[in-house]
Design a protein that fits this description.
The protein is an alpha+beta fold. The chain has 5 helices and 4 strands; from the N terminus they run βαββααβαα. It has helices at about 30-45, 70-90, 100-110, 135-150, 165; strands spanning about 15-20, 50-55, 60-65, 125-130. The chain starts with 13 loop residues before the first strand and ends in a 13-residue tail after the last helix. The relative contact order is 0.20. This is Transposase.
Length: about 180
């Protein structure tokens, strides 16, 4: 089975979910979330990634985005963040789950011939083409409510790693093209 993103219309806007292997809660530390944000920002600046909505949860990342050659951008984003997140976990003396997380990533890599020693992200990502305004608004609402439904915050804009702040007219962590 191919693990590449197959997008029916690569010029469209997509709802993308990147999931940590075994749904491991890897994004419980600010450093790891910041690494993902910096990587997304790089893709915005250098690879033409347009970001309309986003949210980092403890074990997955949601993006509403478009880009020329989006499958390549997503591949590069996953490859870069995977390598650097594993290194950050290894180097973090305060990471109490270090050996468990590394064991999870090593076990996942052992099942795949396309990975080195560690696999951070699940192979297949979840992607949905947002072909109507209704679909776009529905996914944006879903993405922003994620942290509320998980019980982390009372209001979506309270979650720092989300575009909900931008939509609430506050300064968010990443540049977002607001959907009117």
């Amino acid at each position: 089975m191919s693990t590449k993103y197959k997008l029916s219309n690569p010029d469209s806007i997509f709802f993308i979910t990147l999931t940590v292997v075994e749904w491991a809660d890897a994004f419980t530390r600010r450093d790891y979330c910041e690494l993902v944000c910096e990587s997304i920002h790089f893709c915005q600046q250098k690879k033409g990634l347009n970001l309309y909505g986003w949210c980092i949860m403890t074990n997955h990342v949601h993006l509403i985005c478009s880009a020329p050659r989006l499958p390549d951008v997503l591949r590069d984003l996953k490859k870069y963040t995977s390598r650097h997140l594993v290194e950050a976990i290894k180097a973090n003396p305060k990471e109490s789950r270090k050996y468990w997380l590394l064991w999870m990533f090593k076990s996942a890599a052992a099942k795949s011939s396309s990975h080195g020693d560690y696999q951070f992200w699940q192979l297949a990502g979840h992607q949905i083409e947002l072909s109507t305004n209704q679909m776009l608004e529905q996914r944006l609402e879903y993405l922003h409510q994620n942290s509320v439904k998980a019980g982390f915050v009372e209001e979506p804009e309270q979650w720092y790693y989300s575009s909900a702040r931008d939509y609430a007219e506050e300064k968010g962590r990443l540049e977002v093209i607001l959907i009117e």
